[in-house]
Structures are given as structure tokens and as C-alpha cells.
Design a protein that fits this description.
Elements: E1 13-19, H1 27-36, E2 40-47, H2 51-57, H3 67-74, E3 79-86, H4 89-97, H5 102-108, H6 113-117, E4 126-128, H7 132-142, H8 154-179, H9 184-194
Antiparallel strand pairs: 1-3, 1-4, 2-3
Length: about 210
Amino acid sequence: MEVLMPEPQIYVERTLAIIKPDVIGKEEEIEDLILRSGFHIIQKRKLQLSPEQCSNFYAEQFGKMFFPNLTAYMSSGPIVAMVLARNCAVSYWKELLGPSNSLRARITHPHSLRALYGTDELRNGLHGSLSISSAEKEIRFIFPEAILEPVPTGQRARDYLNLYVKPTLLAGLTALCKEKPADPMIWLADWLIEHNPNKPKLQYRISQ
């Protein structure tokens, strides 16, 4: 009996991650955990926000009791901001962070990043976007030069792969089988660079 399996879905999302001032010394350690959790760091910058910039970034929290302390804390030193990408990036990053209160996180999610690196509800070590829409907004705030083109998903992603990726890759793998090089990975990488269909073609004019 043949069982038809559903085609794999292709989803890529972006989210904003911030290493807050009090754990900036753990930057490399935290980045390693991020990468080992399946994320790609596609943009990164170290900066220090002014109190006014922090107020704008956390504008949705304006009016809450903790707002002055939050802006003072976030502007107290440099931060590291990163754009993370993977399937379901927003939800996976929130899961990796754990509860916003680090004291509670150490009880309910002891292996989460906020349990490991945070101190309390205010100084919780790291920031993560709450939704896809807030992620896009926050990325534009921290990385104003970023071009946030929509990432193909579902059928659009499969169509893109079938049209632009698979033909070139299949030709490269066929050539690889014929050539049988000593180092297949390096050979295929060089072949794909050389036969990139989007590679600019220079036209030389011979002057007489």
C-alpha cells in the first residue's frame, strides 16, 4: 500500500533579538546558543540607544509603571541587535527566551535564555519580538537601511525552487557524477558559482 506523504511546507520568518546591556559580556556565548538552535543571524549591530530612542522603541509600553525604569535600563549601555531567520522564527525565539520574568523562568523554564542570563522581570537579559508584525516594525527601527522584502512561503517558495534553483542544481549534480572529483563538495561549489544563472555577463568591446 502506497502512502502519500504531504509535501513539506517552506516557511521563513524574521524576528528581532536584542542582547540587553547587563549581559553584553555574554554575547559570543548567547550567539552560539542561537545558532545551535537553528537560527541564522542575517544582520547584526552593536549600538547604544538614547533614552528617547528607547521610549520610541517601547512606545506600546508607555504609561505603564515600569516604563521609566525600562527606558533607563535599556539606555544604560550598549546592546547587540540581531535579525534572526528560520521557519517560525518569532514563536521559536519566544520559546527559547522563556517567560519575561527571569525569576519565574528559572522555576518553569530553567533552560531558557532568560532563566540562564536574566536577573528579574526588568533585567531579563534578552528581547524578542512578540509577533510577525512587531518584528518587521522593530527591525525597521533598529536597521533602518534594511530592505524587508516578503519572503516566499508555501507554494510560492516551491515554485521559486522549481524555476530558479532545481534546474541549475540538477545540472551541477549531473556534471559532478560525470567528473567524479576528489573533493565533490568543493567542486560542486565552484561549479555553481561558475554557472550561476544570475551571474553578470560582461560584454567587451574591441576598439580598433
